[in-house]
Each structure stands twice: as C-alpha cells, then as structure tokens.
Design goal:
The protein is mostly beta strands. The chain is built from no helices and twelve strands.
Length: 127
C-alpha cells in the first residue's frame, strides 16, 4: 500500500519559517515528480510547488516564489518544502502528492496529474 505522510506543520507567527516533509512508502518516487498543494479555509486546493525526480527542475506558484524551497532525498523517499517569511495568507492544509508515472514534468501544477496523496498537515500562521 502506497502512503504519503506529511509532517512539520504547526502554528507559527507571521514572518516565521517551517520545514515540512513528506515521507513515501510502498513504492519509490525517485523517478517521478512530487508536488505540494494547499487548501486554505473556504478556498479551493491550489498548486504550491513541484520537484523533478533528480531534485530539478523545481516549480513554484507565484504566491510562494522566493519564499518556498523544495528539495528531495530519493534515498529516503522524502520531499522537503521549506517555507520562509510566512504570512496569514499561507494558513492552509498542505498536501503532498506523487505521480504514478515517471519521467514527465509537464502539467506539474495540475492536481489530476498526481495519483497518490497524503492526508495533509495543517499550517497556521498567526499575525
């Protein structure tokens, strides 16, 4: 059974940082794009970032560009987003997603291009 487990969320003051992680088990994603999405209260799920299978290329939504850095450790089957300069607008449940196919980076921002999803980790930014 494939599982993606996010961790690292919590409550942080505006201007602070968080490092999330997504640990995969049940299959390797070392040849697949991994993505992160978020859903803020009352809003639809949106793309945040994605990373290619060798740690590059990386893709970011305009809303997080410059503040969000995504990396991966294929030996650990884990992806690490680092979020800096957090603001109240970043409050959301953050979801890790993995593609079920390999060696393709197009349409990385589309949620329907990801087969596997984690349960999400809550990030709350207080002002």
């Amino acid at each position: 059974q494939v599982q993606l487990v996010e961790s690292g969320g919590g409550v942080v003051q505006a201007g602070g940082s968080l490092r999330l992680s997504c640990a995969a088990s049940g299959r390797t994603f070392s040849n697949s794009v991994m993505g992160w999405f978020r859903r803020a209260p009352g809003k639809e799920r949106e793309f945040v970032a994605a990373i290619g299978w060798r740690g590059r290329p990386t893709f970011y939504a305009d809303s997080v560009k410059g503040r969000f850095t995504i990396s991966r450790d294929n030996a650990k089957n884990t992806v690490y987003p680092q979020i800096n300069s957090l603001g109240p607008e970043d409050t959301a449940v953050y979801y890790c997603a993995g593609r079920g196919y390999q060696f393709e980076t197009t349409s990385y921002e589309r949620a329907d291009q990801y087969t596997y999803w984690g349960q999400g980790t809550q990030v709350t930014v207080s002002s």
